[in-house]
Amino acid sequence: MSSITSIARVLSWVCGALLFYIYFGYPILLGFLARFAPLARKEFKAPDPTVTLLISAYNESPVIAEKLENSLSMDYPNQLLEIMVVSDCSEDGTDQIAERYAKRGVRLIRQARRLGKTAGLNLAVPQANGRILVFSDANALYLRDAIRQLVRHFSDPGVGYVVGNARYVERASASQAADAEGLYWKLETWLKRKESLFGSVVGGDGAIYAIRREMYSPLLPTDINDFLNPLQIIHRGYRGVFEPGAVSYEETAESFVKEFRRKVRIVSRSLNALWRIPGVLNPFCEPRHWMLLVSHKLLRWFAPVFMILMFAASLLLWRFPFYRPAALLQVAFYALALAGWMLQQRQNTWMIFSLPFYFCLVNLASLIGCVKCLRRDLAATWIPPREGAQSKA
Predict the structure, then answer these.
(1) What is the pTM of this model?
(2) Is the confidence at residue 252, as pLDDT, over 50?
(3) pLDDT, mean of residues 215-225
(4) Fewer CB within 10 Å, N- or C-terminus of the chain?
(5) Cβ(370)–Cβ(378) under 8 Å?
(6) All domains of the chain, ordered by start, with CATH?
């Protein structure tokens, strides 16, 4: 047996095992740990804290008024809730709409130049008056009790951040790719719930998450605040909680291809965040969070590398009957993904095509994001896929 064949066999088994763990083993293990080894918690009571809701926006005139009406209707004492619109130098009338709400207590913080969402938060947070900061996007609408559900966890002094339950509403023109993304988010929500029970939810969510004001540190414009900031908080010895009752809604993209660049950007900046806080990769500091972080994020980001290596190894081992079925299964899977790509514009594409296509596209986005991070090609701004929006910080 040649050395190339030996290497191919090792790669086939190692990469196959890693991929099985990422997509099947980790959820099974996490479900077991959350049930039989949950993190001990105590109940605390405290008065309602002051809250600042920071709404990041860039050219969001189609949705900003609805967002502000939604924010002003929150079931939280008016005297304790401050609402700030953080405009990244909007050009479409977003700022003028926000200024109309000044008499109702809404504050507008405008960047003089377009520098991105994170730079806008660096500008706004020092001007915030709330003890708790809630971060949101202009297109994310909250249930009336969402803020109350978030902040109640801060009565526990060990909690540093709380992540809400972002849900996605399918638009009338949504394609089958939107259905696939809906399944993806159901899995993500389940993982967050179990991670919160076992240790600490991994990362935040730009649509709805909250932190203690003193936990915010100024970030670089290319930093992704809803991932790096939670890592900083974990590194300081606090934990993050997922609150399923704090619900926000936003529309899915018309097609996943329109979301592709956003996912590339998220992966590249999130991977960069690990380099900014390398201490979180030390398994002896916060072992539970380390296991969750590596399993849920780091290994998944590099899953496309494992997929490529396993496929190449399977082809090299084609002449061996034992490995041939594995190669055939992979060829069939990628053929279904290719068919899904060709049928992506159809409204009634079968899930047998759209799911493999979505899976491959997500992993392609991860691969490109990892490459961009390694090349230090990090974008601070992006253009959203939503209809009716021109661009967004």
Answers:
(1) 0.88
(2) yes
(3) 91
(4) N
(5) no
(6) 51-264 (3.90.550.10)
